[in-house]
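Contributing new complexes? Match this layout with magnesium ion.
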Amino acid sequence: MYKVLSRFFTLLLVPVFFSLAGCTESPSSQSAFVLGTLCTVNLYKQGSAALYSAVFSRLQAIEALMSVTLTGSDVDLINQNAGHEPVKVHDEVLAVLETALQYAELSGGAFDPTVGPLVKLWDIGSETPQLPSEVAIREALSRINWRDVFIDRAAGTVLLKQPGMVLDLGAIAKGYAADEAARILKEARIDGAIIDLGGNIFAFGAKEGDNRDTVPWRIGVQNPLDERGTYIGVLTVQHKSIVTSGVYERYADINGVRYHHILSTKDGYPVDNGILSVTIVAASSMDADALSTTVFTLGYEKGTALLADLDKVEAVFVFTDKRIRLTKGAASMFTLTNTEYRIVE
Ligand code: ADP
Ligand code: MG
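Output block (do not edit by hand):
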């Protein structure tokens, strides 16, 4: 389904033109369905068709390498050859996979890029989601193990040791893509832009203020219990990536119970630890993306312990009882706007 949607929306690249009667011809933002989600880039006054095109081509190229659902992608070829033979892949795929494996190690396997069998089994987001059987869950779990990913750097190959293993870079690839988009904007000497890959955000540079001065970006943190675009608060940042893993991103309602898409590699069910969302603020979007999922899977105590060891990475946690907890650095960036929620120490 995603594959079909993806193709369909790609044809619909929608440049959004300034509506103010022809004051400029540069598109002020552009959106397309790439990487399994709606991606929007806003270059404000510095936008040009050529630059938008360069950014979206790059996103599509990354999707073509890293998508688990596109036949013939590097990830798909790795999966097709699981338990069989090493597959030569693009350097970028190796680099993202190596980073993913680092987070797997850091989290003791709570974050695991070989979670694919479980992702396929649950198929959250499909039109007819079904509750998997215990037997099927156990069988899927038996095919998940990040230690069975063999990378041969010199040869540039990847081998999944066991047949039936499935690599899924869904928790990290969008972050890498956002960093790549940011790199292109930096090379083009853009001052400020918003890169939004389905909520995986890079608030690039700074915003132009009313007096042509520069001001920080204000990025809303989604209310996990309300409609998309409804915020519980605002993060004020400059040149940072902001990435959220939340129960609302992708879910299925089965027999009246809501199941979301971040899966426990321990019990095979959606992670259920009282967290509704984790938002990470970091310089690198790939790290922010991997960490949002990692910290979500680890839970608050272990997650904050991991974050404490990292430099300049901050987090906003939202819990089911509407409490919010912030890391020290996040406290100075976050402004609460929804008073149903409360910040606790
Ligand atoms: P989103 O894709 O909505 O931005 P995440 O970055 O948190 O959210 O990634 C969730 C995706 O990561 C899932 O759709 C799945 O592909 C993959 N995933 C699910 N559970 C895990 C896990 N325990 N470890 C690594 N990846 C996971
Ligand atoms: Mg993630």
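Reviewers usually confirm one structural detail per submission. For this one: The pocket of magnesium ion (ligand 2) is lined by residues 171, 245, 289-290, 292-293 (CB under 6 Å).
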